[in-house]
Amino acid sequence: MADVNRGNRPLSPFMIGPYYRPQITSISSIMVRITAIASYGVVVLAIIWLLAAATSDAAFGFVDGVLRSWFGDLLLFLFSWALWYHMLGRLRHVIWDFGYCLDLEISKKMGWGMFIGATVLAVLTAIIMAMGSA
Amino acid sequence: MQYLTDRKRAQGLGAGGAGAHHHWVEIATSIALLFIVPLAIFVFGFGMGGTREEVLAYFAHPFVAIVLSICLIIGIYHIKLETLAAVEDYVHGIKGKLTQIAVTGFSYVLIGTGLFAIARIAF
């Protein structure tokens, strides 16, 4: 039962860094947060591209040219990896929250599954996009 | 004997000062992500790679405009919650409050601007 002590409550320490060896559980967790914040980037890019398309040929030509260069392709690939990774990471939170897969071993497997799954999905996305635009 | 209920004891706690509400909304929008992320990636992705006329025609389609609007609103709302949780963890005091306001404002600016861009093309 929760206590009524509202002032002197223990805080969980920040352990990643010099105090604690990096592990798949901690790294896969912090990456969920990093990919969420990084997703602002792809939203900004998408909005700039749409606004350029709505504005003029010159604006669209410039923004579209950047996004379709090799640098743009790389950026979009990384962003799609981040989106897929975040989706899988959040799926893990939902599974945990409903009370399943809380054992350490299965948690570690899910951590690796997020990295591998996001990479597979990002590569598949790139292949499907390359075929679609050919 | 304590006359406080368990719910009352939990009220207003947590890093965000909102009990478990923040956590629950993150879980709810996480379930939504399972639909939003694939839809956003493929519906948006297939619209890229054409001439400006093709792009405008594609994004003016009602299905595309509606799906992307929903993805934009719920997606930004979700990453806003994620970012606010990070701010609550690492930035404290008045600086933390101002950072939270800035993140929230930026998120709504993106939702507004994105919806404007979609509407501009759709109508």
UniProtKB/TrEMBL annotation, chain A:
Parts forming coiled coils: none
Function of the protein: Membrane-anchoring subunit of succinate dehydrogenase (SDH).
Record field: transmembrane: 30-50, 70-89, 110-131
Chief subcellular location: membrane
Pfam families documented for this protein: Sdh_cyt
InterPro entries registered for this protein in UniProt: SQR/QFR_C/D, Succ_DH_cytb556, SuccDH_FuR_B_TM-su
A GO BP entry: tricarboxylic acid cycle
Keyword Transmembrane helix: yes
Swiss-Prot/TrEMBL keywords: Heme, Iron, Membrane, Metal-binding, Transmembrane, Transmembrane helix
Compartment annotation: Membrane
Cofactor: heme
Comment on bound cofactor: The heme is bound between the two transmembrane subunits.
This protein's name: Succinate dehydrogenase cytochrome b556 subunit
Gene3D superfamilies noted in UniProt: Fumarate reductase/succinate dehydrogenase, transmembrane subunit
TrEMBL record, chain B:
Keywords: Electron transport, Heme, Iron, Membrane, Metal-binding, Transmembrane, Transmembrane helix, Transport, Tricarboxylic acid cycle
Pfam family, one: Sdh_cyt
Membrane-spanning residues: 27-48, 55-79, 99-119
InterPro entries hit by this protein: SQR/QFR_C/D, Succ_DH_anchor, SuccDH_FuR_B_TM-su
Listed cofactors: heme
Swiss-Prot/TrEMBL GO biological process terms: tricarboxylic acid cycle
Membrane-protein topology: Multi-pass membrane protein
A Gene Ontology molecular function term of the record: heme binding
Entry's localization field: Membrane
Domain of life of the native organism: Bacteria
Chief place where the protein resides: membrane
Entry annotated with the keyword Metal-binding: yes
Any single Gene Ontology cellular-component annotation: membrane
Pathway(s) where this gene product acts: Carbohydrate metabolism; tricarboxylic acid cycle
Function noted in UniProt: Membrane-anchoring subunit of succinate dehydrogenase (SDH).
Record note on quaternary structure: Part of an enzyme complex containing four subunits: a flavoprotein, an iron-sulfur protein, plus two membrane-anchoring proteins, SdhC and SdhD.
Name of the protein: Succinate dehydrogenase hydrophobic membrane anchor subunit
